[in-house]
């Protein structure tokens, strides 16, 4: 899908949707987008583009619903968000997904906010059942510090464990 919204008096594009697509098959789900908001000339106040791909297998669901029984096996994420003064990039690969319990293996993870970079890898799960995921996913900060995602969420984002391990 593509499209745009034009300001009624200035004729400038308020929204410019270059791409929005959702692709499904028996082995792949993919969402891709490229969107600018409040576009003025070649400049925009907000631009985002990205792609989320999930590989797996599907078995027919009720009424032919493909998404009802899609079992993920791998995938990748790449998301960019930019304003005139700030930028964010999130990217990582998922080489394996386990079920019962859910364990998502993550490789080549990077989160860049402006010039600050955090890399990450490991397994996203809640192995200790404290309702805060990430004890097996390690964040590597530019200053050489390492911390689990679980500890980061508790210490810096206010996450509250539901019980102690």
Largest sheet: 10 strands, antiparallel
Distance between the ends? 47 Å
Strand % is over 45%
Order of strands in the sheet with the most strands?
Answer: 1-2-3-4-5-6-7-8-9-10
Multimeric status of the protein: single chain
Low-confidence stretches: none
Structural class: mainly beta
* Mean pLDDT metric: 88
**Rg from Cα:** 19 Å
Order of helices and strands: EEEEEEEEEEH
Range of helix content: under 10%
Which word captures the global form?
globular
* Count of structural domains: 1
How would you explain this protein's 3D organization?
- With 165 residues, the chain is mainly beta.
- The chain has one domain.
- Helix content is 5%, strand content 61%.
- It has one helix and ten strands.
- The chain has a ten-stranded antiparallel sheet.
- The longest helix is centred in the last third of the chain and has 9 residues, at 149-157.
- The termini are far apart.
Question: Could you give a short description of this structure?
Answer:
The chain is mainly beta. It contains 1 helix and 10 strands, in the order E-E-E-E-E-E-E-E-E-E-H. The protein has one domain.
What is the element layout, followed by pairings?
Elements lengths: L2 E4 L6 E12 L3 E13 L2 E16 L11 E14 L3 E12 L4 E11 L2 E9 L11 E6 L4 E3 H9 L8
Antiparallel strand pairs: 1-2, 2-3, 3-4, 4-5, 5-6, 6-7, 7-8, 8-9, 9-10
């Amino acid at each position: 899908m593509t499209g745009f919204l034009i300001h009624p008096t200035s004729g400038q594009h308020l929204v410019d949707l270059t791409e929005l697509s959702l692709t499904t098959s028996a082995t792949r789900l993919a969402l891709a987008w490229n969107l600018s908001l409040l576009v003025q000339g070649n400049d925009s106040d907000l631009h985002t583009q990205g792609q989320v791909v999930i590989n797996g297998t599907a078995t027919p669901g009720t009424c032919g619903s493909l998404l009802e029984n899609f079992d993920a096996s791998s995938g990748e994420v790449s998301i960019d968000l930019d304003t005139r003064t700030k930028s964010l990039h999130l990217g990582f690969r998922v080489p394996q997904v386990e079920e019962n319990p859910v364990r998502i293996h993550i490789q080549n993870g990077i989160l860049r906010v402006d010039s600050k970079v955090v890399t990450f890898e490991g397994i996203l799960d809640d192995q200790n059942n404290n309702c805060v995921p990430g004890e097996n996913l390690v964040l590597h900060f530019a200053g050489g510090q390492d911390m689990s995602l679980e500890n980061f969420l508790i210490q810096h984002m206010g996450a509250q464990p539901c019980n102690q391990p």
